[in-house]
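User: Hi! I have a protein structure encoded as tokens and I'd like to know what sequence might fold into it. I'm fairly new to this, so please keep things simple.
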């Protein structure tokens, strides 16, 4: 990748810094996205942003409401997460389509597609004039090249150091980023374990053109995660993480410890935990012990809850020194 291509990320997205705040279910809402975008990165709304227990509202209307709230705070670019199931499930496709249409109607400038590569959805995003950022859960040079062929503007290479659902092949950020960066001509963002300027410098040294960060933005004032979750992140270390199934880790909440014992240590136990609900209960509800707290392995680098703009500035400092 040439220097011009590296610089292109900010230009493509219309932002100051090549830092994308990763979408996170429930907890990446309008306050966080607006704060990151106002500070010069790209804020991205996660699935179920703005969720209110018991409220009767369609997913489309809730997303439009969140985008409207972002627009009350900033007119800078903002993105929306689009979840794509691999292999053409009709209901999932309709859901993704309606998310893209609501994103466009609400003034989003980018869609971050996670999961499968779905040409019909990618085309719709481009047709609506939004940037197409593609993040397979398990990136490899084949799906990266395919995403580029299908018109992706930016590809996200996620390594196993990440929070959220982990790549299924166990490949870490240091291994996957250079492998993908040398197989594409579009810019690559590094994701997984990047919490400060040192992580950004390392990502750039590996050939990434920018970074895609989730966990660092959880411990910010504007993130919709509950205060106890934020405290727990500041208090814990990466070594405290429990592997609760093949693709998920959690800080040692009561729920996670129970799941760890039941699902992980007993032979024949179910292979996976319902991440979305467990995450909602642990991170968005009022008590982390009721669910899981999913974070990256580099949380030793997070010691306080700060304004999102400060977290962004710290990451952005990595570009200066590179
Ligand atoms: C609590 C949590 C929830 C997440 N939920 C989503 C999600 O709904 N959609 C998605 O595309 N990625 C999700 N992710 C993954 C992030 O988008 C991103 O890839 C990852 O957090 C980057 O790694 P980092 O946490 O090491 O910065 C989530 C991550 C976390 C930590």
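Assistant: Happy to help. Inverse folding works backwards from shape to sequence: for each of the 322 positions I chose a residue that suits the local structure. Here it is:
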């Amino acid at each position: 990748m040439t220097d011009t291509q590296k610089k292109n990320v900010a230009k493509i997205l219309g932002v100051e810094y090549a830092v994308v705040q990763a979408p996170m279910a429930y907890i990446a809402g309008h306050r966080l996205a607006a704060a990151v975008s106002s500070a010069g990165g790209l804020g991205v709304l996660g699935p179920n942003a703005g969720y209110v227990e018991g409220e009767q509202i369609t997913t489309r209307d809730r997303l439009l409401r969140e985008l409207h709230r972002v627009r009350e705070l900033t007119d800078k670019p903002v993105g929306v997460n689009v979840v794509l199931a691999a292999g053409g499930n009709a209901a999932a496709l309709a859901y993704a389509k309606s998310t893209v249409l609501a994103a466009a109607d609400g003034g989003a400038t980018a869609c971050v597609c996670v999961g499968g590569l779905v040409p019909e959805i990618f085309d719709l995003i481009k047709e609506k004039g939004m940037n197409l950022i593609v993040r397979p859960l398990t990136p490899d040079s084949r799906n990266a090249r395919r995403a580029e062929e299908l018109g992706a503007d930016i590809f996200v290479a996620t390594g196993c150091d990440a929070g959220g659902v982990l790549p299924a092949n166990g490949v870490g950020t240091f291994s996957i980023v250079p492998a993908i960066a040398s197989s594409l001509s579009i810019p690559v963002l590094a994701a997984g374990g990047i919490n400060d300027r040192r992580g950004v410098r390392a990502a750039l040294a590996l050939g990434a053109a920018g970074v895609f960060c989730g966990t660092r933005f959880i411990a910010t004032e504007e993130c919709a995660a509950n205060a106890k979750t934020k405290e727990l992140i500041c208090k814990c270390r990466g070594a405290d993480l429990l592997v609760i199934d093949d693709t998920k880790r959690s800080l040692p909440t009561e729920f996670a410890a129970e799941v760890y014992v039941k699902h992980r240590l007993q032979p024949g136990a179910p292979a996976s935990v319902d991440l979305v609900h467990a995450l909602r209960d642990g991170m968005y509800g009022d008590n982390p012990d009721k669910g899981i707290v999913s974070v990256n392995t580099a949380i030793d680098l997070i010691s306080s809850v700060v304004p999102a703009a400060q977290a962004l500035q710290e990451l952005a400092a990595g570009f200066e020194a590179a």
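A useful reference point when you look it over: The chain has two domains: 3-222+301-321, 242-294. Feel free to ask if any position seems puzzling.
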